[in-house]
């Protein structure tokens, strides 16, 4: 009985400590941690869309990246469980817990924007007064003024946020412990966030109109531009926490991406009807079975698969294909 009592006390102490965050998936209730995280992912994407809609522009560039969910949840776990005035556990999720997580998320996420004007030469056809010209039109080079919307995103690290919140020595110790390699597998098993389809599609849609592939290829680690369709997909997955959780791979080459899904029996051939959030791999002519391009499935409607793709003529674009199109090599499913 004494031994059992000790075990119960130790277990209770663990659940009431910041380490309780790793047991949040086991908590009952009407809302889960992952659902609140999903809401915040959507709110972030909605904020980017609001900025785009409120500012007239010809093209878009987005720089930087959001804070990592691992860092956000570390601060959340420490702040909630060690608050001297109103300590909460990190296991449960209700309206009060959600409010704290929302506050921390936006304290750690900074979104700024500006516009810049540039000129571009275009070729247009204009009427000609030359009666000898049968078409009555002639090509002319004109200089036009364009407006680029630049959205800059920066995320504070857990260490920066701990300093901003004025964490004491004990709290800083918890932050260091939670971020240590010792807990890497526990962070992955937390499945940040669960589900998958809505989150990665929302992030991808928020990037439509981006020109040039920044910040995707530089985030990946390249010092100059590369073919960036896979970098874009990986960046979107990272924004949702799917790289940390092992839901999707981080890849810059389409072949490696396809092999990752195939080796885990998460591969569907091109004749399949995909679900939103799956990765779609393409094989252009001469169609040799080697993937040439990758994107994200947005939805399937009326026999068409709608996608969001990076590096489509050096832009992020929405596109569509007939289901079963010969250019669709296959689909990669999320690892749940």
What do these coordinates show?
The chain is α+β, with helices and mostly antiparallel strands and 336 residues long. It is 37% helix and 23% strand. β7 and β8 (317-322) form a beta hairpin. Residues 1-12 have low confidence and may be disordered.
CA distance, first residue to last residue: 39 Å
Q: How many beta-strand elements?
A: 9
How would you state the average pLDDT, rounded?
A: 85
Instruction: Provide the gyration radius in Å.
Output: 24 Å
The run of helices and strands is HHEHHEEHHHHHHHEEEEEE
The main pleated sheet reads as: 6 strands, antiparallel
Give me the secondary-structure category.
alpha+beta
> Total number of helical segments?
11
Shape, per Cα inertia axes = globular
Q: What are the low-pLDDT stretches, counting only 5+ consecutive residues below 50?
A: 1-12
The spatial strand order of the largest sheet comes to 4-9-5-6-7-8
State the helicity in percent bands: 25-40%
Which key terms come to mind for this protein?
globular; six-stranded antiparallel β-sheet; alpha+beta; 336 residues
Summarize the structure.
The chain is an alpha+beta fold and 336 residues long. Helix content is 37%, strand content 23%. The protein has helices spanning 2-16, 33-54, 69-82, 95-108, 158-165, 169-178, 184-189, 197-205, 216-220, 229-239, 254-263; strands at 59-64, 109-127, 137-155, 267-269, 279-282, 293-301, 304-309, 317-322, 328-332.
Write the layout of secondary structure elements.
Blueprint (H helix, E strand, L loop, with lengths): L1 H15 L16 H22 L4 E6 L4 H14 L12 H14 E19 L9 E19 L2 H8 L3 H10 L5 H6 L7 H9 L10 H5 L8 H11 L14 H10 L3 E3 L9 E4 L10 E9 L2 E6 L7 E6 L5 E5 L4
Parallel strand pairs: 1-3
Antiparallel strand pairs: 2-3, 4-9, 5-6, 5-9, 6-7, 7-8
Helix pairs in contact: 2-4, 2-8, 3-4, 3-5, 3-6, 8-10
